[in-house]
Amino acid sequence: MNANNIEPIQTTVIESTESIVIVEISSETDKLVETEMVGETDEVKRETKALIEALKRRAQSEADSAGTITRETYLKAVRQARELIEGRKLIERDRLEDSWAIIQDEAERNWHLLMKDLLDFSYRLQKAAKAAWETFNNPYSR
């Protein structure tokens, strides 16, 4: 906030193949994205900032237009949407963890099968070498 109690706002130009939109990014959103998305490209950060600002504007306009009863319905819908999104993140993470565990189990099982096959092949090779040696060293009889 500055002396006039006005928060400085960053302006971002978002270009797409269809249009150019100027989006004002608040310092709060800017700090949030820069902190949480360290290492991402400037384009990803810029698009994320624009998305957050669009969500904030939409949420504010919905909240402003809602009456007391509608506001309660709106809050319930927002909570359900948040819970759904958070639930999907948990489900996706659980699926990834389960998939990784399955991949590890399959890799371990395949490794054990490969080792068994190698041991079996080694044993057969030893038996063949022994048989060849005995045949070579035993006199030929008719």
Give an account of the 3D structure.
Strands 1-2 form a two-stranded antiparallel sheet. By secondary structure, it is mainly α. Mean pLDDT is 78; it is low at 1-6. It contains three helices and two strands. The N and C termini lie far apart (109 Å).
In short:
This protein has 142 residues and is mainly alpha-helical. It has helices at residues 27-36, 42-65, 68-137, and strands at 9-15, 20-26. Strand 1 and strand 2 (20-26) form a beta hairpin.
Task: Give the fraction of residues assigned to helices.
Answer: over 70%
The average pLDDT value, as a whole number, equals: 78
Could you tell me how far the N terminus lies from the C terminus, measured between alpha carbons in angstroms?
109 Å
Tally of helical runs: 3
Order of helices and strands: EEHHH
Give the C-alpha Rg.
33 Å
| Beta-strand residue percentage | 5-15%
Quick one: biggest sheet? 2 strands, antiparallel
* Low-pLDDT runs: 1-6
Major beta sheet, strand line-up: 1-2
The class by helix and strand makeup works out as mainly alpha
The number of E-state strands comes to: 2
Q: What global shape is seen?
A: elongated
Q: Which key terms come to mind for this protein?
A:
two-stranded antiparallel ribbon; 3 helices; 2 strands; disordered N terminus
Topology:
Layout: E1 9-15, E2 20-26, H1 27-36, H2 42-65, H3 68-137
Antiparallel strand pairs: 1-2
Helix pairs in contact: 1-2
